[in-house]
Amino acid sequence: VKQVANLTLVSSACGVVSTAYASTKESHPYLRSVCDAAEKGVKSVSEATASCVQPVLATLEPHVAAASEYASKGLDKLGEKLPILQKPVEQIISDTKELVSSRVADVKDAVSS
Q1: Which N-terminal residues, if any, form the signal peptide (predicted)?
Q2: What is the pTM of this model?
Q3: Is residue 27's pLDDT more than 90?
Q4: Are 85 and 79 a contacting pair, CB within 8 Å?
Q5: pLDDT over 90 percentage in the chain
Q6: Across the chain, what does the average pLDDT equal?
C-alpha cells in the first residue's frame, strides 16, 4: 500500500482530491457539517475494526509479508512498463490536452483539404 501511495500519479491524484475536498468543505458550511459527521463515523468504525482485526493480522503476518513482497515486485515491473505512473496528474492532463488538440488539428487539416 505504501508503494502504491508513493507512485507520483497516485500521490498527485490524492493531493488534487484532498485539495478539492477541503475547498468544498470551506465553501459550503452545510456540506462541511455532513462531511465532519461522516469523518467521525469513519474514524470510529476504523478504530473499532482495527482492534478486532489485530489478532487475525498477527496470525497471518508471514502470509501478508510474502504477499506484500510479491506485490512489490509486481508494482516495480508495472512502473517500468507504464511510465505514466511516475507523472503527476497535472502533467498527464496537459499532455492529453496537447495530444487531443493535435489530433483535432490533423482532422481539420484532412477535412479542409
Answers
A1: none
A2: 0.64
A3: yes
A4: yes
A5: 59
A6: 91
In angstroms, the CA 85 to CA 99 distance is 18
Helix locations, the chain, DSSP H: 2-5, 8-27, 29-81, 89-112
Long-range contacts of 12-21 (CB under 8 A, 24+ apart): 12/87, 12/88, 12/89, 12/90, 13/89, 16/89, 16/90
With CA atoms as reference, report the closest residue to 13 among 67, 87, 75: 87
Please give the angle made by the CA atoms of 37, 40 and 43, to the nearest 5 degrees. 150
* Alpha carbon distance 102, 106 (integer Å): 6
**AA identity, residue 37:** A
Cα angle for residues 71, 75, 79 (degrees, 5° grid): 175
* Domain positions in the chain: 1-81, 84-112
Q: pLDDT tens across 56-88, in order?
A: 888 888 998 899 899 999 988 998 899 899 899
